[in-house]
Amino acid sequence: MEDLDLLQEAASEAEAAKDSRTLYEVKMKFLGRTGKVTGLLKSMKELAAEARPAFGKRVNALREALEEKFAALEEKLKRKELEEKLAGEQIDVTLPGRRAKEGALHPVTRVKDKLIDLFSGMGFEVFEGPEIENEYYNFTALNTPADHPARDMQDTFYLTEEFLLRTQTSAGQIRVMEQKKPPIKILSPGRVFRSDDDATHSPMFHQMEGLVVDKGITLCDLQGMLDEFAKKMFSETSKTRLRPSYFPFTEPSVEVDVSCAACGGKGCSLCKGTGWIEVLGAGMVNRRVLENCSVDPDVYSGFAFGMGIERIAMLKYGLGNIKLLTENDTRFLEQFKD
Ligand code: PHE
Predict the structure, then answer these.
(1) How many CA atoms are closer than 13 Å to the CA of 296, on its beta-carbon side?
(2) Which residues does 99 contact at the CB level (< 8 Å), separation at least 6?
(3) What residues flank ligand 1, with Cβ below 6 Å?
(4) Quick one: 297 and 199 in the same domain?
(5) Is residue 193 part of a domain?
(6) Whose CA is nearest to atom 6 of ligand 1?
(7) pTM above the 0.85 mark?
């Protein structure tokens, strides 16, 4: 009657199991490789040969009965567990959703993208030069030798005697002309560094450089292109004016003013009563610069311009202090969403 006892024992333990894991353990205890029922089968070899068939039949019947029992209980427990899991995971569809905080592009990035968009529409390609430059690209090749007073115009962060943080994206002009023969029409955005710090100057800021070199390029081409730029960047009624200036790498050099968008040129506090706002430096590429890059100045001519992206952003959005652009105050930055 050993098998009946075993059936009883297994059934009551199985029924007591509260979850499918415990049930599985009980199952292994009886039906597993080292389980009690399996043990019975193994003990068969100790019996006399005639007794074996009857014994084997009984143990097999017991095993089948137990397997059925376990399968039924297992299904019941699994269903119960699934129901509990689903009940626990119920979601309240009436709860308001959690909104993802929406980011926005930084005003400097917006102006930079707008400039690239605007100038690439006129056929300019983007070239990006390195932020760490040597004296040759940043100064010497731009017709600014070591003893040139114009080096003082840009207080430079030197890294070593030779290497420095570029003070102007104009360094890229040389790199482009070394790599490419005219016609050249490039736009070079990037960070520049100067030891300069007040309400309108920051030691790191962004510039956008433009360079056009081809046969027959004149100052009129520059002015025509700048007019287009002012209209697209500020307002349809914006005008530009060129004032004589000086840069070692351009000759003649000009300072470019745009009519004040705030007062329409009548004069206000933003333009200090003049009706004009200075936005960039430009000029015809100095023939010495062309020569330094093996471009024949008797065949080719070109113009270059360089503008501060922060300055354009300040004018466009009416900002009084350049530091607003680097403080990362989200209350300020949030205002530049489309
Ligand atoms: N590199 C000049 C500056 O940083 C701007 C400039 C660029 C002027 C190209 C003329 C031509 O002030």
Answers:
(1) 4
(2) none
(3) 168, 170, 209, 247, 250, 281-283, 304-306
(4) yes
(5) yes
(6) 306
(7) no
